[in-house]
C-alpha cells in the first residue's frame, strides 16, 4: 500500500525534467539569437564592441578608400558642414573605410552603418548624416529610407548625399524625397578610386517646414525647366493628318520606333512607386502584354499595373494575371451608369461578331439613342487618379477610349490629376475617312485631326510627355 503513489511521483519528476529541458532549450536559443544579432550589428555599425570583433576577425580595410573619404570629410569640415564635435552618421557598404576616414578627420563621435532601409536610432540623434553612392542609390525603398534619414537628423542638421545620378530629372526626384530640406550645394566631385567614379555631391540642410511642393494653379501645372527640356527633346508631333486613316500612329512601325521614351532620356530612380495605367485596356495582349511588358524601358523598376476595362468579354482573362489590377469600369467624368455602343463586324449576311465597346454616353442623355447599346458602370477617373497617386510617383498612362479622351482630359486638367502623369500614350479619335474610302467622313466622332493636335500640344505645355498613339 505504501508503494502505490510511487508511479505518479516518477511521472511528475519526468514531466518536470522535460519542462526544464524545454525551458533550457528556449533560453539557449535566445542567447544564440542575441549573440548573433550583436555580432551582426557590430559589423554593420561603428561601436567599441564592433571594433573588437573586427580586430579579432582581421577584416581587411582598403586604405585608398579611407584616404579618398578622408579628403571628402576634410572638405566638408573646411566648408563648415562638419566639425570634430558633430554627432555623425555615415551610411554605405564601405562602413569600415568610413569609420577610418572619420577617425582620420578628427570626428570624435560617429557611427557607420550599411543599412539603407531603416535606422536603429532615436529621433533627432545626429548633427550630420553622410550617404555614400552605395546607400540611397541602391535602396529598395528610397522614399522610406529618406524618411529615416530625416527622422534621425536634428533640425538645422546637414545631410550630405553622394549619388551616381547626374541628369536633372533623377536629381530633382532625389530632392523631392527631402521636401523639408534646403539645398545648400550641388556639385560633381572626383574621388580617385576605381569603385567610386562619377559622383555627384548634394548638401542639404534640414528645415522646420516643407519647402519643395509643386502646386496646380488655375488649371495649369507647375512645369520645371528640366521637364520642359525633356519634352523638347522628345519626338516631334505629327501635325499632318495621315494619308491612310486606317493606319493609326501606333500601328505605324516607324512612328513607334522613333518614340523617345522618358526612361531612355533620363534616370527614373528615387520615385515613391512606379505605376502603369492602361485606360481602355481591352485584352491583355492588346497593349499590356504585347507592348508595355516587352518594349517599354522600365529600368528594372517594379511597376504596378492597372487595367481599366469595362467590357466583360475581357475580364476573365485578367483573373489569371496576378500582378495586374483590373478595374472593371468605364473611365468617365462622374460616378454614374453609362451606355456604350457595341461595335460589330459582319462576317456574312446573317452573322456578326462583337469587337468590344465603342462610343460611351451618359445614361442621362442616352434615352433617345436607338443604336445597339449596353449598360455599364462609369467611374470618375480623374478623382481616382488624384486620390491614388502623388507627385513623387512615376506614372505612365496609355489611353484609348474611343473619343472620350476629350472629356477625361478636361476633367483631369480641372482637378490637377493631369499634373501627376509623367508620360502618356494617347490615341486621339477624330472623324477620319470611314472605311478608308476617299472623301467620306465618319460621323462617329465630333472632333477633327486639328482638335487632336491642339490636345496633344496643350498636354505638352502642361508638362506631360505625351506621345501620339
Automatic annotation (TrEMBL):
<dbReference type="Pfam" id="PF08241">
    <property type="entry name" value="Methyltransf_11"/>
</dbReference>
<dbReference type="InterPro" id="IPR029063">
    <property type="entry name" value="SAM-dependent_MTases_sf"/>
</dbReference>
<dbReference type="GO" id="GO:0009820">
    <property type="term" value="P:alkaloid metabolic process"/>
</dbReference>
<keyword id="KW-1133">Transmembrane helix</keyword>
<feature type="domain" description="Methyltransferase type 11">
    <location>
        <begin position="119"/>
        <end position="161"/>
    </location>
</feature>
<dbReference type="InterPro" id="IPR057192">
    <property type="entry name" value="DUF7870"/>
</dbReference>
<dbReference type="Pfam" id="PF25276">
    <property type="entry name" value="DUF7870"/>
</dbReference>
<keyword id="KW-0812">Transmembrane</keyword>
<dbReference type="InterPro" id="IPR013216">
    <property type="entry name" value="Methyltransf_11"/>
</dbReference>
<feature type="transmembrane region" description="Helical">
    <location>
        <begin position="22"/>
        <end position="41"/>
    </location>
</feature>
<feature type="domain" description="DUF7870">
    <location>
        <begin position="373"/>
        <end position="469"/>
    </location>
</feature>
<feature type="domain" description="DUF7870">
    <location>
        <begin position="247"/>
        <end position="319"/>
    </location>
</feature>
<protein>
    <recommendedName>
        <fullName>Methyltransferase FkbM domain-containing protein</fullName>
    </recommendedName>
</protein>
<keyword id="KW-0472">Membrane</keyword>
<dbReference type="GO" id="GO:0008757">
    <property type="term" value="F:S-adenosylmethionine-dependent methyltransferase activity"/>
</dbReference>
Amino acid at each position: 500500500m505504501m508503494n502505490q503513489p510511487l508511479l505518479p511521483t516518477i511521472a511528475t519528476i519526468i514531466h518536470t525534467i522535460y519542462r526544464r529541458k524545454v525551458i533550457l532549450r528556449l533560453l539557449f536559443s535566445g542567447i544564440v539569437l542575441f549573440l548573433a544579432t550583436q555580432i551582426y550589428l557590430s559589423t554593420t555599425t561603428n561601436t567599441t564592441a564592433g571594433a573588437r570583433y573586427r580586430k579579432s576577425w582581421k577584416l581587411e580595410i582598403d586604405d585608398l578608400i579611407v584616404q579618398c573619404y578622408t579628403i571628402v570629410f576634410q572638405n566638408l569640415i573646411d566648408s563648415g558642414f562638419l566639425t570634430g564635435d558633430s554627432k555623425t552618421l555615415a551610411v554605405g557598404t564601405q562602413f569600415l573605410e568610413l569609420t577610418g576616414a572619420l577617425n582620420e578627420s578628427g570626428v570624435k563621435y560617429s557611427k557607420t552603418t550599411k543599412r539603407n532601409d531603416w535606422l536603429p536610432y532615436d529621433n533627432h540623434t545626429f548633427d550630420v548624416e553622410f550617404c555614400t553612392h552605395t546607400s540611397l542609390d541602391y535602396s529598395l525603398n528610397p522614399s522610406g529610407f529618406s524618411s529615416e534619414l530625416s527622422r534621425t537628423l536634428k533640425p538645422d542638421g546637414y545631410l550630405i548625399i553622394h549619388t551616381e545620378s547626374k541628369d536633372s530629372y533623377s536629381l530633382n526626384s532625389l530632392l523631392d524625397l527631402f521636401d523639408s530640406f534646403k539645398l545648400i550645394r550641388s556639385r560633381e566631385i572626383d574621388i580617385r578610386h576605381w569603385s567610386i567614379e562619377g559622383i555627384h555631391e548634394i548638401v542639404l540642410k534640414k528645415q522646420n517646414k516643407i519647402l519643395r511642393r509643386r502646386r496646380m494653379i488655375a488649371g495649369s501645372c507647375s512645369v520645371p525647366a528640366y521637364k520642359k527640356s525633356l519634352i523638347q527633346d522628345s519626338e516631334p508631333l505629327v501635325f499632318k493628318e495621315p494619308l491612310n486613316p486606317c493606319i493609326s500612329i501606333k500601328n505605324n512601325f516607324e512612328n513607334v520606333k522613333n518614340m523617345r521614351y522618358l526612361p531612355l532620356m533620363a534616370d527614373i530612380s528615387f520615385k515613391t512607386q512606379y505605376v502603369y495605367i492602361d485606360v481602355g485596356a481591352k485584352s491583355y495582349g492588346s497593349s499590356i502584354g504585347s507592348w508595355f511588358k516587352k518594349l517599354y524601358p522600365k529600368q528594372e523598376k517594379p511597376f504596378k499595373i492597372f487595367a481599366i476595362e469595362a467590357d466583360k468579354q475581357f475580364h476573365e482573362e485578367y483573373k489569371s494575371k496576378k500582378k495586374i489590377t483590373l478595374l472593371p469600369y468605364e473611365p468617365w467624368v462622374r460616378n454614374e451608369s453609362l451606355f456604350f455602343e457595341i461595335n460589330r463586324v459582319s462576317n456574312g449576311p446573317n452573322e456578326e461578331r462583337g469587337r468590344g465597346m465603342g462610343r460611351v454616353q451618359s445614361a442621362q442623355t442616352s434615352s433617345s439613342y436607338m443604336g445597339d447599346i449596353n449598360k455599364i458602370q462609369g467611374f470618375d477617373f480623374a478623382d481616382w487618379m488624384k486620390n491614388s497617386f502623388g507627385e513623387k510617383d512615376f506614372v505612365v498612362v496609355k489611353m484609348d477610349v474611343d473619343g472620350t479622351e476629350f472629356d477625361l482630359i478636361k476633367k483631369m486638367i480641372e482637378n490637377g490629376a493631369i499634373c501627376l502623369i509623367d508620360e502618356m500614350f494617347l490615341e486621339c479619335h477624330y472623324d477620319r475617312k470611314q472605311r478608308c474610302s476617299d472623301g467620306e467622313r465618319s460621323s462617329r466622332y465630333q472632333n477633327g485631326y486639328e482638335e487632336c493636335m491642339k490636345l496633344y500640344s496643350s498636354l505638352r505645355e502642361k508638362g506631360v510627355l505625351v506621345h501620339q498613339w
